[in-house]
Every structure is written in C-alpha cells, then in structure tokens.
Amino acid sequence: MKGAIGVFDSGxxxxxxxxxxxxxxxxxxxxxxxxxxxxxxxxxxxEVVYEFTLQAVEKLFELGCPLVILACNTxxxxxxxxxxxxxxxxxxxxxxxxxxxxxxxxxIGEITQSRHVGILATSxxxxxxxxxxxxxxxxxxxxxxGEACPMWxxxxxxxxxxxxxxxxxxxxxxxRLMGKDPLIDTIILGCTHYPLLIDKIKQFTPxxxxxxxxxEYVAESLKDYLQRHPEINTRxxxxxxxxxxxxxxxxxxxxxxxxxxxxxxxxxxxxxxx
Length: 274
Fold this sequence. Notes:
10 strands, six-stranded parallel sheet, globular, four-stranded parallel sheet, Rossmann fold
C-alpha cells in the first residue's frame, strides 16, 4: 500500500520540522496531524503521552502512511521506543515510525568545540534524559546540561512570541542554563515550537553560543533514511501535496499554521483521536 509521509506533533511546533522537510523533499506527499486540542504534551505523564501518540500514529496508518515522523520531542522521548518495539510488530511491521531526537544528537559532535552542550526543552523531554542518553551513546565525552522551559510552548501556541512576557521567560531559562554550565558553546532547541522564539533566544544568549534548531537536521536525516531504505521510499507517494489535520477547530489551526509556515490559504480538516 502506498501513501503520504505522516508528520505528527502535539501542536503547531512540528510545522517547523515539516517546513524544512518539504523544502528539502518537495516531491513527496505529506499528511500533518496536530493534536492541538490536547496540547501541550510536555507536562503530561509517560503513559498519557504514549497513549495519545499511539492514537495519532494509528490514525496516520489508517490514512495510508507507510512512514510517520514524530515531529515532537516529548513524543519522541516518551513514546517512540515503545511504539517501535511493542506496537509496530502487532500493527504492521512493514511500516516505520521515526523520531527527531536521534538526528539532532548525531549532528552535535561536529558542532560543539568546548564539548559542553545545553538542551532547552519541555519538562517531559528533560525528565526522560533522552538527549543525554542519545548524545552519550555517540559522543561519551560531551557534557550535556538540560533546562526545562514549561512556559515556552503555551507562549508560542498563543501567538505571544513577540510579547514582553516571552522576553521574561526566555531570558530566565537561558540565564539558568548558562548558570549551570558557563562552558556551553552549543544549545539544542529540544522542542519543535522553540524555533518560533529564535530571535528572542539569540537576543539573550552569549554571542559565541551556537543555537541548533532541529528542522534541517531532521530533514537531512529523512532524506538519507529514504535513500537507504528503498522498500519504504517506493511506498511513499510523490505528487507534492500536503494535507493538514487537527483535533482543534479548523480556523484556529489555519490562523496559527499560516504564521508557522508563512503561507496563506492552508486547507485544514478537523478530526478526533481516541
């Protein structure tokens, strides 16, 4: 069975990943699913994130996707492994589900000079220690320090990225991170919403510190994956289309998606999960 590549996020953040993937691989068809009605995932328990993510993956499989990208760090941290190991063999072992943490971890060794790396992410991603584990598997010498930023996703989801409130919370968490380890020379934005705050993040970060947004690394990793796995690639349809699905109201999603993707007239369908 052939179908589109599925891209899932708890909200709008995954659109920053989708945007970079479509830039690099415009020929493929995509279905984006945002579980906006139940966002944010970052503060929820492992069990709930796993349950919600599995529902989304099953919905995208139902719609014919042979491959699903979890464009959400919390879902990648809390649900990916269980879905790959437990659910895929039961549902359909020919399909694939990929996350966004591994591709980001892979690139970091070539970027940091000081070998001190910071992670800005949701509470769920920080608590899972997924970045620490993935980076240490590849680069045992790198020291990884995390800082949870629970207010950042609500700021982005509510289009408050340019407000004074955003200034306060961005400054607070960057100061805390750099206070924990002043030798950090690279910061990973470990949440797909955070690129929307990139100007503010740069404003409050020391000028020598490199900021890593995940989109381009995930896109490159997907391109490489499809080249290495022709059995998946041949099942991905290629007519250059993109469908948008949300568990929220269509108009609300459309308004915010236009901000994230910088394009007008996005057609959105409302669906329910669970």
